[in-house]
Amino acid sequence: xxxxxxxxxxxxxxxxxxxxxxxxxxxxxxxxxxxxxxxxxxxxxxxxxxxxxxxxxxxxxxxxxxxxxxxxxxxxxxxxxxxxxxxxxxxxxxxxxxxxxxxxxxxxxxxxxxxxxxxxxxxxxxxxxxxxxxxxxxxxxxxxxxxxxxxxxxxxxxxxxxxxxxxxxxxxxxxxxxxxxxxxxxxxxxxxxxxxxxxxxxxxxxxxxxxxxxxxxxxxxxxxxxxxxxxxxxxxxxxxxxxxxxxx
Length: 248
Known about the structure:
Helix content: 25-40%
Shape: globular
Order of helices and strands: HHEHEHEEHEHHEHE
Number of strands: 7
Strand order of the largest sheet: 3-2-1-4-5-7-6
């Protein structure tokens, strides 16, 4: 499987994009609509380097309130959200095409979608490769699979318990509960797991019928791809792995 080239923006624009995205993480709690709308539109921009969205059938796994699906719709796609948590689906405003289901047990027919998309779902499942397999089955030949997830050893690997997750996921959760008076939303070993960059790269390179088109740290400039070749650094510095694959 080989990686193909794609259109690049200027290095200055890439750096400004990264700074803007990282700054937005500071507003996730105070302005979730603005934060998720920003990163959803950015995801559409990254995908558009590989395929147009107008008229495409998209399934958004783990899409919750539908910020990504709304961005896809603005660019002409028809998108359905599949999420296991009803409270997530209704937390913003219910996307008109939403299904409550586990990603690996969704009612979406195999080979029926032009684009399979998932953002920050795979760090919340105990078997990353098995769930990725099931999601990828939904895309037709020639269609794209775009998967993105947070690396456990990255600075945001523990989500709201970061950076204390470096001392252990369970310890970080206990510290969070002592400080805030309630347990974290993302509980290590229950709803959040130690997803690695290596695991995602191994799955992307070895899954039959899929061609790896792009792999990069999602929020960093394109030149940061070299990090994915360095075992420890990729886990510590990638933050979030972005994978684009095409069904053969």
